[in-house]
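Sat 14:20. Reprocessing the chain from the morning session after the first attempt stalled halfway. Input below, unchanged.
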Amino acid sequence: MYFVLKCFDPPNAYLGRIEYRDDDPFRFWNTGDRFDDEPKEPLRARVILDKQSVLAEMWETPLPLMTARLHKALLAAGVSNLDTYPVLLEDKQSGNIIDGYLAFNIIGVIAAADAQGTRYAPGSTDRLISADIDHLIIDPEKVAGGKMFRLAESVSAILVSEDVKTVIEATGISTLTFMPPETWVG
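Finished this time. Tokens:
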């Protein structure tokens, strides 16, 4: 079984917003490709926090970020297709640097949508990269044992296997959501 990995706002709070100005406008973090031109390290990003916002375990945009503890859990689960980069994450209000975050690039996309069971939004003609999916069904044979990947049909979807979910939850990380694919809309 596979799950769409998300990090939503917690009850009664909001995730801080990330500001990031890419040093290379032709570097795309969601294509599944390794970078030909590695980013200059450390990457610099800012987070906008207020009294109602909190730090996230993971941000997907504008710069994919995850905590070092999530990265450690993914490695322990056997995920081996992540390129990570150190980040200087600055609190925009205080100027303080927040430790413990990495930018991440998931290497590889998999066209894993079941052709018969997946429903696309009416009028949607795209079937790769930015398909508008209303009901996603994963074909496990197409995944071929992948542990974490972007969905080729809609690269905004990050999928993880059930064993990866189990390892993450066993580490005590409780701020992520593992959506059954059929409930994901994207």
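Helices lie at 68-76, 140-143, 162-170.
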